[in-house]
Structures are given as C-alpha cells and as structure tokens.
Amino acid sequence: xxxxxxxxxxLMAVAFVAGVIDALAGGGGLLTIPALMAAGIPPVAxxxxxxxxxxxxxxxxxxxxxRKGRIDFRRFRKPALAAFAGSALGALTLQHVSPAxxxxxxxxxxxxxxxxxxxxxxxxxxxxxSRLGPAALVGLVAAIGFYDGxxxxxxxxxxxxALVALFGMGLVSATAHTKFLNLSSNVAALLALIVGGQVxxxxxxxxxxxxxxxxxxxxxxxxxxxxxxxxxxxLVMSLLLTAKLLSDPANPLTRSVLGLF
Length: 261
Prior knowledge:
Subcellular location: Cell membrane
Main location: membrane
Protein name: Probable membrane transporter protein
Membrane topology: Multi-pass membrane protein
Oligomer: single chain
Number of domains: 1
InterPro entries: TM_pro_TauE-like, TSUP
Number of helices: 11
C-alpha cells in the first residue's frame, strides 16, 4: 500500500501521542489502530503494523524506567514469559478470524474500553499488600497477553490496574512493570504477525520513530506526575475515533444497525 506524505505525517503524529499515553497509562493503541484503519488499512494489517511501532515505543519506555531502577526484572521474569506465550497465541488466533468480523468487533471493543476507563477506580500512589500470589499474577498476565495479541488497545491500562488493585503496587511502579510485560507481549504478537506477512514495514518503522520519542517523554512524565491526567484525553479520543469507524457505511456493525430501521 502507498500513502501520501500528509497521511504518513498524521500517522506519525498519532504514534507520538500514543507513545506518550502508552508510557503514562496504557491504551495508546486506542488511537493508532483506528487511525491506521481510517487510512484504509485492513484490520489485521493495522493491528500488525501497530505492533511494530508500539514495540519500539514500549521498549523506549522500558529503557527509561529501567535506568531509574523502577523495574524488578527478576520478580517479573515469569509473568513476562506468560505474557509472551499468551500474546503469541492471541496473534495466531487473530489471523484465522474474518477481517469483516474484526471491522465490526473493533468499535465494540473500543466502546468497552471507554466504559472501562470511565468506571475504573483511580489508582493509589502507595504500595499495599498483594491480594493474590505469584501464580495468579502469571495466569492473569497470560490472559491479558492473549488479548494483547488478538486486539491490543487498553492492554497497558488493564495491566496497570490489575497490578495496583490485585497485587498492591503503587501507580508509578505498576506503570513501569506494565511496560516490561507489554513489551514481552508486543514482541510475541509482532513475531507471529511477521510470519503471517501482515506488517506494513515502511509505515510501521516511520511510526516507530515517533513512538520512541513519545515513549521517552511519557516515561519522564510518569515519573513526575503519574497517569491521572491522561484518562480524560483517552476517553475523548476513544469516543471520537469510535465514531469515525462507525461513520463508514461499509462497517458491518453500522450496516447491521442501519438494517434494523
């Protein structure tokens, strides 16, 4: 596929903003996947290309957090492996699902993400006692990893909230470890989608450059102010992009709703 300079510049700008949001709160894919699909890219290729650019951005954020000593790699080694395995399975499943089905499903999942972000309780900045043990952490991360490989948007927010609500981590610490887990799941899904020939390399690498810069800025902001300021922006952008997808008369979900009248 070929794209004009204006479209590429716009997608790079979206990737930068998504990189910032991902490092702060997760959910940057809520911006990049709909933007890629709005540019005319089929759903599976959009998800695959998003995995390429977001993997670079997430790696950038992991590096920034690790430099500050905020990631316990030993404790999270097994959960990271679980995220990798779950995501690889999710990405393989994705490639056997009808693209038409995904075109209708993605707006539904986006709306579900909006409801989640709107209703989820605010995370604490203080460490508390974990409610669940290491085995539960591995299982939960594997399940979220599967979701990340299959779809992706909101994975970071799900992981961060789980680490805070169920495993007693403070907000910044949970955000830092989420980036490590998310990097593992991103790489697994990316490898599976590369094998499937789904990645748009030139566009993905250009977006990756912006994502890296955004990830560095987002990690810096996360260490200073936390993720709370991102939620209102994420809600607004998610709703706008969902409306954009559903405004396409060819979208299966739109056709189904219109067929009722």
